Amino acid sequence: MPGPAPKDPKLRQRRNKKSTRATLARNVEPRKRAPSLPDRGNGQEWHKLTKAWWRDLWHSPMADEYLRADEHALFRLAVLIDMFWLEPTKELAGEIRLQQQAFGLTPLDRRRLEWSIEQVNAAQSRTHARREVQEKAEEQQQRDPRELLRQKPKDIDLDSGDIPVVG
């Protein structure tokens, strides 16, 4: 006796999909110009690791997801990171971790936001190259090395008695 009729595929779709789902292109041209870190106001320079973080942030695939309104929160995060590099504390590290979550700055945060970074064709080409090398190695193993001795060179006339000189 047959069971109930299958549901319409539209009814079987997940309804708890996150609205933040996005696929981020890895090879996207970086922004023409990343926002500059604001002036600290007290004549103090930004720590070199903070500057490096800021540069990496704006050249990452996630940068295209940030809106102009997000820059203010990222400025606050930069201040926390700068404070951490000047005087690291456990409390600052915890606050930085909490603030980073909103911007997908760690693999776990990107997973939570359902952001995935587009895989580059390089992985596919490496796999292809590896397979070619394996196939050639297998082909070499299957050949009998004595076969080379049995082959008659095409450009040598054995009847003439001339022996070609190699080198």
Task: Write up this protein.
The protein is mainly alpha-helical and 167 residues long. The chain has 2 domains: 20-117, no CATH class; 121-145. The chain has 7 helices and 2 strands. The protein has helices at 9-12, 48-58, 70-86, 90-101, 107-112, 121-142, 147-150; strands at 22-24, 115-117. It has a two-stranded parallel ribbon. Helix 2 runs antiparallel to helix 3 (70-86) and helix 3 (70-86) packs antiparallel against helix 4 (90-101). The protein is flat, with a radius of gyration of 31 Å. The mean pLDDT is 78.
Distance between the termini: 83 Å
Classify the helix fraction into a percent range: 40-55%
Strand neighbour order, sheet with most strands: 1-2
Radius of gyration: 31 Å
The total count of strands amounts to 2
Give a short overview:
The chain is mainly alpha-helical and 167 residues long.
Fold topology:
Blueprint: H1 9-12, E1 22-24, H2 48-58, H3 70-86, H4 90-101, H5 107-112, E2 115-117, H6 121-142, H7 147-150
Parallel strand pairs: 1-2
Helix pairs in contact: 2-3, 3-4
